[in-house]
Structures are given as structure tokens and as C-alpha cells.
Amino acid sequence: MSVNITNAQRAEVLTQALPYIQKYYGKIVVIKYGGNAMINESLKQQVMEDIVLLSLIGVKVVLVHGGGPEITEMLKKIGKESVFVEGLRVTDRETAEVVQMVLAGKINKSLVNLLEIKGGKAMGISGIDGHMIEAAPKDERLGFVGRITGVNTEPITDLLDHGYIPVVSTVGCDGDGNVYNINADTAAAYIAGGMKAERMILMTDIAGVLKDKDDPSSLIPCIDTKEAVELFNDGTISGGMIPKVECCLDAINRGVNKVIIMDGRVPHALLIETLTDEGAGTMVTEDKNNER
Q1: Worst-scoring range by mean pLDDT, 56-60, 191-195, 283-287?
Q2: Where are the beta strands (DSSP E) in the chain?
Q3: pLDDT beyond 80 at 1
Q4: Is 198 a residue whose pLDDT tops 80?
Q5: 105: number of Cβ within 10 Å
Q6: Cα-atom radius of gyration of the chain, to the nearest Å?
Q7: How far apart are CA 275 and CA 270, in angstroms?
Q8: What angle (nearest 5°) sits at the alpha carbon of residue 164, between those of residues 160 and 165?
């Protein structure tokens, strides 16, 4: 959809964005990307455009991605059924190989290619490279699903220092060479914490934390760590939102300034969040008095 605006209006929009450009210049923003925003091709194009724009105005963007639906699809192609325990994919050795192939190969390289097409300078790496994400078994019932035991952010920092957008696929490894399937939200929190990122943005398929889970207009724009505990206790945060908010709190505890849970299906949600007064989604912060 094209919108007719005058050159003066364009100039006004850019002027209004200036304080935010100054705020984020040289700062690290970790974006976790996956789900519907990745599956929908036009949305994917817009997300890549947003990331390239942020990079070109001096934001140090780190893109961390998952790829659950694509893994399920590939497993189906080889006749392997996906089994889940408490929302986590049971991962035997063969499944771990498929996870590595789909995440570190197909998805990672396609995102790098898209960023390059849009005018960005991107480099794909996986948690195995430089033993960036070290892992151990999370639960024996899950096989090669990993819990993170350590993160080495040096490879990411090196890429940022050379002007690249690092695109990180969330597979991990241990000292014996085993490969682990790592939850992308968790990996993003550890990476963002290790880099003391200004912000971590989780792109999901819902608007954020809702007072009423069936009413998108009941979005809670900002919560702090104390309020989050209260919302856990009274059941407002429930179901699939529980691990998302826990992940946000973990990132804050690890030194991230602010975390955003946003709807990745909204066109240009990244730019709305970072470069406008309005913001997008729910901001989680240590202290509610810190303004957006």
C-alpha cells in the first residue's frame, strides 16, 4: 500500500526520529526473530528492511533466530514425527542433525542473503562457531535439547566491530562435540546479557502481555520486575507467555537495560518501537520509573 505524503511531511518524520537515532547510535540491540513474522514472506522483507535501516543509522543490531515450523516441516519430509514434552521438541541425534541443518544452514543463510539484498552487511554464525553457545542436556526425556552453560560473545562482538549484522542460529555444543537444540528466546537473553545490550526485542505472534488474553486491546505497555511477579501470581501471565516473560526477566537480571515483547506480524514494528514515541508491545524493565 502506497501512502502519498509530501516531502515536508517526510522531513518532519525524519526530524521526529532524530532523538531516537541519537539514543540508539552505537548501542547494541538484540532482536529475536521467528514464528509468523518469519513465515510470512512480505513481513520477512519488512523486518529485514527495518534491521538494515537500524544498522545504517548506527545501531549495532544482533539478529538471533529460531525456526521451529521449518524444522517440523523438514522432519515430516524425512518421515520423522515431531514429539513435544512441555512445549519442547524431543530431540534425538538424528533430529539434532536436522535442527543444525535447517537452522545453521537453510534459515540462517537465507536471512543473511535477504539482509544483503536489502543493502545490509550481514554474516551468519551458529552457536557452534567459536563454541559461542556451550550447552549440556536440559532433561534426559528431551535428548539433545540443551540448557546453556556458557556464552562466548566474542565472535559477535568481532562482527559488529567490522560493521556486520551478526545473524545467529541457536544451536549449541559441548566439549564432546554433541550438538544441542537451544530455545531461541533463551539464547537471545544470554547473548543480550553477555553483551549488556541496550535492548532485547522478542518478536512474537501476539501483541505483548495482555490483561485479558482474549482481548488484544488490553495490552499492558510497561511492567517492571516486581509487577511481573504479581502478574504471574494472579494468572494474568499464563500459558506460552510464562516462558517469554521469564526470559525477559532473565535478560534484565543479566544486565540488559530493557526488553520488549512485540507482535512481529505488525508491519515495521521494529521501527515503531525504536524510532517513535508510541513504541510497540510490552516493555519489561527493572524499574517502572524508567520511561520508554
Answers
A1: 283-287
A2: 28-33, 60-65, 84-85, 88-89, 122-126, 133-137, 146-151, 165-169, 171-173, 179-181, 199-204, 222-224, 258-263, 282-285
A3: no
A4: yes
A5: 13
A6: 19
A7: 8
A8: 90
Give which of 114, 118, 103, 98 is closest to 41, Cα–Cα. Answer: 114
- Angle subtended at Cα 265 by Cα 218 and Cα 209, rounded to the nearest 5 degrees: 30
What's the rounded Cα separation, in Å, for the pair 75 and 72?
Answer: 5
Query: How much is the average pLDDT of 127-144?
Result: 94
Three-state DSSP string of 53-116 = HHHHCCCEEEEEECCHHHHHHHHHHCCCCCCEECCEECECHHHHHHHHHHHHHHHHHHHHHHHH
SS3 state of residue 205: coil
Per residue in 14-32, pLDDT (tens digit) is 888 888 889 999 999 999 9
What Å distances lie between residue 120 and 2, 22, 48, 55, 114, CA to CA?
24, 20, 9, 8, 9
Confidence of residue 123 (pLDDT cuts 50, 70, 90): very high
How far apart are the C-alpha atoms of 95 and 74, rounded to whole Å? Answer: 10
Q: Determine the average pLDDT of the residues in 175-183.
A: 93
Least Cα distance to 251 among 194, 183, 180, 172 occurs for 194
Asked whether the beta carbons of 264 and 43 are under 8 A apart, the reply is yes
Grid cell at residue 209: 502481555
> One-letter amino acid identity for 159?
L
pTM of the shown model: 0.91
DSSP class of 224? E
Q: Please say if the pLDDT value at position 3 is more than 70.
A: no
Average pLDDT of the chain is 89
What does the alpha-carbon distance between residue 26 and residue 10 come to, in Å, rounded to a whole number? Answer: 25
